[in-house]
Amino acid sequence: MCSSDLSADAAAGLLGMLAGRGSVNVCRAYADWSRAELGDWVGRMRREGLHSFHHFPDDDEQALVAMAIDAVDIARDASVDEVVLAGDLTSALPLVHRLHAAGVRVVAVGAGHTPHDVRSACDEFVDTAAIDGAQVPVVGRHRA
Predict the structure, then answer these.
(1) Nearest C-alpha neighbor of 126 from the set 106, 110, 104, 115
(2) Are 13 and 126 in contact (CB under 8 A)?
(3) d(CA 86, CA 107)
(4) What confidence tens digit (pLDDT) does each residue in 88-135 have?
(5) Cα(65)–Cα(106) distance, integer angstroms
(6) Each residue of 36-53: b (16+ CB within 10 Å) or e?
(7) N or C: which end of the chain has fewer CB within 10 A?
């Protein structure tokens, strides 16, 4: 599940990385798809099989809230083992805690400025700057 804060190139690298981890059952992208700068995304979404969810630009947090609700619903209803959240995850800490409470492993893919509390709460954190389609360094979390 990702928001448009993730570049199209980083999204393609992320999808390549996920292909090596197992089955990707649900793949969603949340954004205001009418924005001109997302033109590259639209073509890649179709090629990669992402399901797009449109959110109007009047509230930047709408996409994050929708992604959070969907992630919890999917974790509860689809019996998934792992959820990958990508984009601007600045406010995602409650979501990470909720997914862990449901027994779901959480991988975050975000910018280098992602808060340390979000990074450390996740089972893995991948900096989008590191996704280049080949080697993806992962910073893990030690679960207690």
Answers:
(1) 110
(2) no
(3) 8
(4) 888 899 999 999 999 999 999 988 889 999 999 999 999 988 885 444
(5) 17
(6) eebeebeebbeebebeeb
(7) C
